[in-house]
Amino acid sequence: MPKSPDPTDRHVGSRVRMRRLMLGLSQTKLAGELGLTFQQVQKYEKGANRISAGKLQHISNFLQVPIPFFFEGLFDPSNTAKHPAGVPTPAHVSELIATSDGLSLIRAYTQIKRRGVRHAIVALVEKLAS
Q1: Which residues contact 51 (CB under 8 A, 6 or more apart)?
Q2: Which residues contact 38 (CB under 8 A, 6 or more apart)?
Q3: Which residues of 51-82 are buried (b: 16+ CB within 10 A; e: fewer)?
């Protein structure tokens, strides 16, 4: 029976992915910087493989964030607390930002200057979700 990834490893990996996507970097580019294959970066990002302290320091330097960035939200009680249906938790927000679609959506939305247009988009998305 395959072992499931450790929640901490998954969280750290998702934060690596989020930051990599924020900078517009490919897994291949990050892998090249780290002297790894892109498959190994995939395993890190999914939490399937644990990132060593030295490798995390290298990732931190290359992605231009402090090491605590990778652990933000991990020990936040609101990540595990019961929330009413439909109420996003910090973990949900991190999961959204860690996807290319989520990041693209946020980038595009924040570039819209007209408040009315932003409200219309939110209303449309809420309607589609219901």
Answers
A1: 9, 12, 13, 16, 44, 59
A2: 26, 27, 28, 30, 31
A3: beeebbebbbebbebeeeebeeebeeeebeee
Count of domains in the chain?
1
Predicted TM-score (pTM) of the model is: 0.70
Residues 51 and 13: beta-carbon distance below 8 Å:
yes
Q: pLDDT tens string for the chain (130 positions)?
A: 667 889 999 999 999 999 999 999 999 999 999 999 999 999 999 999 999 999 999 999 999 999 999 998 876 555 545 556 666 666 677 778 778 888 888 889 989 999 999 999 999 988 998 8
Q: Which domain holds residue 39?
A: 7-98
Contact 98, 16 (CB under 8 A): no
CATH code, 61? 1.10.260.40
Task: Provide DSSP, 30-63.
Answer: HHHHHTS-HHHHHHHHHTSSPPPHHHHHHHHHHH
Note whether residue 71 is domain-resident: yes
